[in-house]
Each structure stands twice: as structure tokens, then as C-alpha cells.
Amino acid sequence: MAIWTAVTVTAQIELEDVVGSFLIDQGAPGLETTQRGTSVQLTGHFPSPANIDELRRFCDTIVDLFPGASRPSIECTELNDSDWGENWKDHFSPLALGRRLFVHPPWIETIPAGRVGIEIDPGMAFGTGHHASTRGCLCLLEQAFDEHPPVRVLDIGTGSGILAIAAAKLGAAETWAVEIDPEACQIAAENVRINGVASAVCVGASLEDAPGSFDVILANLFAFQLIDLAPRIASRLNPNGVAIGSGVLADEADDVRAAWSAAGLAPHGVYEEDGWVTLAFQAGPSPAASVSCQDVHRDS
Ligand code: SAH
User: Which atom of ligand 1 lies closest to the CA of 164?
Assistant: First the structure.
């Protein structure tokens, strides 16, 4: 007997948010999103039988609410328990990112030549590389390595550990991965171990656990958190260090830019995808400049 129904709605890209919210409201525990040109496919899994009539009515009303929009199409697939076990894996396809990175699930073992493999067992923590905010962090992290390879890296909100593992595999000697959710913390530690970087990555529960200052600080959180954390992030950056902030929607980006500038950081790079913005900001060459002025003053 089928125990799950996979419902896939194909809609114009402008309707992604409204269709996605509807599927979540209807009880889908999460969504897989695939962009295809100007349309998007959203798949949610529902316990069978799914309430398809409700979804059909919703698709009819969308055409009235969004003039000019075409009616989304709906496709349902019944899955039994054993299908489910294999089927969800289809949504964690491997990803080649930037010039050097390759994020892959455990069941994909071949790494393309010239790329660094990052094995992520999806589990229940955020960070498979399938979200634009994670991809933005990875691409700007790779850029930071191209410019000036960092020695110490901090990843605030590590989730699956993906960014910290990438930093270690790209060559950072010491990376701190902090995560407030204890379950995600355990998953991160396990992924760090699987990737063979346990000697280069320390997993902790909060920012206070990570000592010292860093050449790169990654924070894929929410915009309001990046704004709150701006002074603490700036105070933990080494001279010329780079802070990479993500989880920011396009219309929130200017507020984050303002907060990070006010904290003394300067714009350094940006990555935009799917309406998500990732920002790179850089610390000045020498935060100790004012200290040396005081020294001169004291000596005179
Ligand atoms: N770094 C991963 C996961 C980002 S999701 C990636 O880029 O894909 C954000 C994570 O930050 C969540 O796992 C959440 O539990 C964690 N988090 C939120 N606020 C935090 C805080 N103040 N300190 C540490 N972790 C935090």
C-alpha cells in the first residue's frame, strides 16, 4: 500500500513563494525545489491519500489572483515505504561548485578530477549545498582562498558542517564550527569525521567556544542575526580578514550592508542566486592603527 504521495507542482517562477507556502500549509514537512528556466518545480511529500482536490482548487484561484499567470500543473506519484527510502535520495544530487568544490552524498563516490570532494549525509541538519545561500558562501569562500588562503576560519551556524568542512578541505589549518542546535551539532561532528578533517575542525555550541580571531568568518543565518552580530564578527576578524554573510533576501541586503559597514568592514564581494544574497566584507589592513597613535601620544 502506498504510504506517501509525492506531489510536484510546476509553476512560473514568480509563483514559487505562494505555491511553496501552500504546500507547507497543507502539511508537507519540507520541499524540494528545482528551477527549470522560467518555471520552478516544487515537490512535497504527503501521507497518502493527499488532499489533491484542495490543491487543484488552489491552482485554479491562483490564475485569478495573479493576472497573466498560467495555471500551475500538478503531478502525483504514490510511493510505498521502500520507494521512499530511495526516492528522497534523488533530491540530493552531487553539485560541482565554483572551480574546485564538489559536494556529494555518501552514495556518490567518484569525485571529478581537480575538485575537492565534500561528503554530506543530509540527515536532519541544514546544509546540503542545494540552497542558494550555502552555495553563495562556498563560492565566496573559494574566492577568499584564491586571494589569500586563510589559516583560521570560523563558521557560525554550521548546520551539517558543510562550510567548515569545505574550509578545512581547501586548506585552512584550524576551523571552528559553532552550532546552537545540539542535534545539528552532532550531525556536523559526524560529517567532519566522515570527511577526515577532524584534526582541522573543532565543533562547538556557541561563538564563545571559539577562541581568538579569524582570517575568514562565515555566517549563513538570518539577516537580523547578521545585523545583531556585526560588531562581534568585526571584532573577531584579523586584519584584512573576510566576513561572509548569507541567508539574506534581496530586499534585506542593504540593511546588512549598512550594519557591517557601521562595524568598520568594507564591501568586498557579492553572490546572488534565486533572490538570495551572500555578502563578503573585509576588515581594514590594521585595526591596531589607533593603538599605535596612542602609543605615539604616550611616548611624547
Ligand atoms: N552553514 C550551513 C547551515 C546554515 S543554516 C549552510 O551554510 O548551509 C543556519 C544554522 O545556524 C542552523 O543550523 C541554526 O541552528 C544555526 N544557528 C542559528 N543561530 C545561531 C547562533 N546564534 N549561533 C550558532 N548557530 C546558530
Answer: 1
The mean pLDDT value for 135-150 works out to 97
Residue whose C-alpha cell is 591596531: 288
DSSP 123-155: TTSS-SS-SHHHHHHHHHHHHHHHHS--SEEEE
Name the pTM for this structure: 0.72
Phi, psi values for residue 2, rounded to 5°: -70, 135
Q: Identify any residues that bridge with 214 across adjacent strands, giving them in sequence order.
A: 237
Minimum-distance ligand 1 atom for the alpha carbon of 184: 13
- Averaged pLDDT for residues 15-24: 88
- All three cell numbers of 9: 507542482
Atom of ligand 1 nearest to the CA of 205: 24
Q: Facing residues of 249 across strands?
A: 276
CA of 203 to the centre of ligand 1 (A): 12
Report phi then psi at 224, rounded to 5.
-65, -30
220 Cβ inside 6 Å of ligand 1: yes
Closest CA relative to residue 271, chosen from 137, 102, 170: 137
Per-residue pLDDT tens digits for 143-171: 999 999 999 999 999 999 999 999 999 99
The ligand 1 atom nearest the CA atom of 128:
8
pLDDT of residue 195: 97
115 C-alpha vs ligand 1 centroid, how far in Å? 26
Distance 66 CA to ligand 1 centre (A): 35
Model pLDDT, residue 300? 38
Q: What number is the average pLDDT over the span 224-252?
A: 97
DSSP conformation class of 161? S
pLDDT in tens, 282-295: 999 975 444 444 44
